[in-house]
Amino acid sequence: MHSVLSWDWYTDPRVLEVEERRLFRPSWQYVGPLECVRRAGDQMVGRLVRVPVVVVRDGDGELRGFLNVCRHRGSVVVAADGNAPRLRCPYHAWTYDLDGTLRSAPQCGPEVSAELADLGLLPVRVATFGPFVFASAAADGPPPPGGRTCPSGRSIRTAPAGRRGSSTTTSARTPARRGSRR
């Protein structure tokens, strides 16, 4: 006779924490449809488990993913899907380019200006598989859906938006999109 898992396995917060740490954090999570990030400046927000992420298409056509958290005070940078030439934190107006680099930090003085290059958004890996965008915060996690990976530290240009059956990846040094839909 087969035993059944106790109800506690489905409701115990400790079991959830173990599942998040061992199963979901190192894996690829669905962020959203590729059609939402077709044009330069398109932005798509999502979550990787409990971590907010944003996937953008930059001016060169690269799909990039980042932790959607301002490096200044931890505020969410992009509140909703949309299109903009830059990512701007609503809290103190720290502004990031679409490649994640910090462009300006108003009211922070010269000491922060000297560190702009080190205060960019933190990247996550991004991959497309058919018409879907996936992201992973694990720098050394499993390969993306479709099995294609890229050399460490380099990004691969994504296939033109809407092209079915293609699978591309962006490395952890470049950005990604939506762990779970709201």
Reconstruct the topology from this structure.
Layout: H1 8-11, H2 13-24, E1 29-33, E2 42-48, E3 51-57, E4 63-67, E5 82-83, E6 87-88, E7 95-96, E8 102-104, H3 109-113, E9 123-129, E10 132-136, E11 167-170
Antiparallel strand pairs: 1-10, 2-3, 2-5, 3-4, 6-7, 7-8, 9-10, 9-11
Query: What's the CATH class, please?
Result: Mainly Beta
Number of beta strands: 11
The pLDDT mean sits at 81
Rg over CA atoms = 18 Å
* Outline: globular
Please indicate the percent range of residues in DSSP E strands (runs of 2 or more).
Answer: 25-35%
Structural write-up:
With 182 residues, the chain is α+β, with helices and mostly antiparallel strands. It has one domain: Rieske Iron-sulfur Protein. It has helices spanning 8-11, 13-24, 109-113; strands at residues 29-33, 42-48, 51-57, 63-67, 82-83, 87-88, 95-96, 102-104, 123-129, 132-136, 167-170. The strands form three sheets. The protein has a four-stranded antiparallel sheet, with no helix packed on it. A hairpin with a 5-residue loop joins strand 3 (51-57) and strand 4 (63-67). The longest helix is centred in the first third of the chain and has 12 residues, at 13-24. It starts with 7 loop residues before the first helix and ends in a 12-residue tail after the last strand.
Keywords:
182 residues; alpha+beta; Rieske Iron-sulfur Protein; 4-stranded antiparallel β-sheet; 3 helices; disordered C terminus
Q: Short description, anyone?
A:
This protein has 3 helices and 11 strands, in the order H-H-E-E-E-E-E-E-E-E-H-E-E-E.
